Structures are given as structure tokens and as C-alpha cells.
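Friendly challenge for the regulars: who can give me the C-alpha cells for this chain first? No prize, just bragging rights.
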Amino acid sequence: MHNFAIKLAIIFSVAAVRPAIAEPPVKQAYFRSEPTELRFSDAASRNAKEEDLASRLSKGTMEERVAAAGDLWNGHSRRHAGRVLKFILGSASELAVGTNLKRSIEDSLKPEAIFRELRDGDNLWGLWLACLRPHESLVPELLAELNKEPPNRPEVILALGKSGDKRAVQPLLQLLGNSNYRLPGDAANALGYMAFPEVEQNLMEALSRDNPWLKVNACSALGKVGSRRALPALQRIANDKRYTGALAVRYTAASAIEAITKRNPEQAAPSNGDKPPY
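First reply, four minutes later:
Bragging rights claimed.
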């Protein structure tokens, strides 16, 4: 009995000093680092490990870059997912070292895989995949998500905008008139991605609202879909010195004017002697 107690004590002592088995990385580890398209303020959360992997994606050997790309994708890094796609489908696409990762990424971008993420997985990651790889079959699911008024509505709105699907136009126009501070601006941004000329009038009317977030996004959207009709309203904002501060409303209006005139070189911007604030 005495010998048994000694053996038992030895077993417990060995177990106590045995190193713990590392747990697999959490897939949602990086989801709080928002991509530029979803930035709502200058306050941006960053993940040190995520940024280190992003650095290795840019500067490492090909093997290190592929490994970093895999970690970023499997970690659901929305902030760097676009760069991962560009790398894997571009620089690494012909290399055997990235073949398995490329196949895995392509599989995760199929509509049925995105559906699974939206419904039963990491919803935010699924919404970002819908932005990166729009598909018409996803639109009903996104519209249903929007009607639930989830906390991640900005992501749903952006995914609908990136879809370019006309079924999303009316719901987005309704949000454009919402009294909430953020949502109308998000809707304006989404409508700009859709590039339907018929939304121009709604975006022009939005410029008169006392909402800087809406103004800056409506200006940006008009830069993508606007015609000569939008130039006077944009010029008034570009020349109005009241629009200063963190949101570059005047600069965005001036940039939209430049984009419209380049797209329509025969249509000159209104000339009133004032130089836009570039």
C-alpha cells in the first residue's frame, strides 16, 4: 500500500509539470479589426497578431506568405481578407505550396458555404464573404437578415450594396430616409456600389440633410453614379466652409465633382470662381 501511494504521487507530480496542449486558434480571433469599408470613426481596433501576419504576407518568403495568408483567412481577418484573396489567386496561384489553401478559400467562397456561415457559423465573417464574392442567390438571405434589424446591420447593408442586385434598391432607399444617424450614410454608401442611375435623385436630396455622415457618403456615392445634374449641389458643399472636421465632407464633394467631370468630359463643373478644397 505504501509503494502504491509513492507511485501515485509520482504520477501526479509528472502530470503537474507536463506542458499544456496548445488549443487550436479561435477562428473569430480577428473579426473586431474592421475593414476600411466599415469604418465609422477614427477609432479603429487592431489585433497585434493579425497585423504581424499581414506584415509577413507582404514581406516574407513565398512559404511564409502562404502560411500568413492561411492564418489570416482561418482567423477570419476581415481587415486583410481582400489582400489574402489577391495574393492567393495571383502571386501564389501557380505555386504548389499554396494549392491546398487556394482550394480551401475557393470552397469557402461558394454560395452554399457562405449560407452556412450566415446561418450557423460566424455571421460577421459570412457577411464579409458575401461582400468579397457577391452572388444573386445570397440576396434573399441578406434581405431577410436586414428585416431582423440585427446589430450588424452596417455589414448587411454593405453586402447588399456589393451584390449589385436591384432587389436591394428599395430597402436601401428606405434606410436612406431613416432618422438614425449612421444607417442612412451606410445606405448611401451601398447605393454607390450598386451604380444604378435611378438612385441619383435620392442621393442628391440626401445632401440637404443635417447629417455629416450621410453627406460624406452621399457625395462619395454620387461620385460613382452621379451625372451633371448633381454638380451644383456638390459644388455648394465643396465651397461651404462650414463642413470641416473629422469627416472630409468638402473634400469628398470635390472628389465627386472631379469623378463626374472625368466620366463626362463634355460636362464641365459649374464655374463660380471658387476652387474646390483639394
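Confidence is low (pLDDT under 50) at residues 4-26, 269-278. Residues 2-17 form the longest helix (16 residues). Your move, everyone else.
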